[in-house]
Amino acid sequence: MLPSRKATIFPLLGALLCILLSAFTFSQFFIVHSASAASTLTASRRHPRPHPTSTIGVTVTIGTTPTVGVTATVGTTPTVGTTPPPTSQSVRVFVEPTAGEQPILDAINNAQKSVWLEMYLMSDTNVVQALENAAKRGLDVRVMLEPHPYGGGSPQATIDALNAAGAKAQASAPTFRFTHEKGMIIDQATAYIMTCNFTNSAIATGRNREYGIIDTTPQDVQGTIDIFNADWNHTSEQVTDPNLVISPDNSRNDFVTLINSAKASLIIEAEEMQDPAVEQAIATAAQRGVSVQVILPKPSGTDNNAAGIAAIKAGGALVKEDPQLNMHAKMMVADGTNAYVGSINISTNSFDNNRELGVLLTDQGVISTLQQTFQGDWSISQSLILVG
Questions:
Q1: CATH code, 110
Q2: pLDDT tens digits, 335-371
Q3: Does some domain include residue 248?
Q4: Which of 20, 133, 177, 331 could cross-link with 353 by S-S, CB 3.0 to 4.6 Å?
Q5: Overall domain count for the chain
Q6: Could you read off the pLDDT of 324-333 as tens digits, one per residue?
Q7: Dist. CA 236–CA 213, nearest whole Å
Q8: Residue 354: CB partners within 8 Å, gap ≥ 6?
Q9: 97: cis peptide before it, omega within 30°?
Q10: Dihedral pair phi/psi, residue 178, rounded to 5°
Q11: Which pTM value belongs to this model?
């Protein structure tokens, strides 16, 4: 029997009403929760989540993904897998004969408190005059000069003139065979550690290849001050700065260590090659595959470096002599990353008996200048062929 039409319609209307009520309830729920989500998003934009706590002095660049294992050093582009040097140096370099007297005269003339000088030779009259003027301005000017330099001569007239102008000048300590250091300290804040004497040939007339390091690194400056004070007072110095290379204390060991560290390249500009231990280290470096290039001065007579040259050439080192400049430099660079500049010659006397001062460097700007200067000198130097 078929159901009546009314009986069929009423159930359908009931089902439709249920559907409409459910749809209305869901729409209200969606509106409420959508409004809540929008409110939360707006609040998060007004009050963003703070960045992780930053370290004072460290600049964080947004959008840069850090590389695992890279330690950033201020002013240095980090390199994967490299460890920055243990000490940061604030250093500059000047090169003679290009720079002339000006770096020295500017340092003395601009000094505010003190100029301390420990030097092998000083005959440049402009430098002496600048020191006298500094003393007359009331600065604490102290000068030590080697009393018996090789080849004769005496600094006594210069010492007397400086003392008359109000400086404190004296002969260097008799403790050493020679005080061969070329050092200057300005205002106890800047150390000049150099290969050059303050003579006409070194800084005035443009004949010598020389380098000078201007160092404001506090521990380097303090170490240089400690050496000066010890020599001024004829006492023993106690210097622990690993950057400073000091004769007769640690110089030969530091030279050999630097040479032994070379893995790919070693460049040397030197006045002398007269110490068997260092010569052997150079020869050994060449034998293990390091590219070793050495520039020495062209002798005017008997070559006192002949035996040393033969020793390093036997190991495979390439040696040239500079025919244009007086090669008075004392400089080494290993692998383009570590360097030495200072007063120390590669000679037994320089390592064992003299007062000498040099500095180890990792500053890439300074090292780049050393390398570029060397390459220019290498290009004009003459290959050495030993006879006999």
A1: 3.30.870.10
A2: 999 999 999 999 999 999 999 999 999 999 999 999 9
A3: yes
A4: 177
A5: 1
A6: 999 999 999 9
A7: 25
A8: 176, 177, 178, 179, 180, 247, 248
A9: yes
A10: -135, 140
A11: 0.77
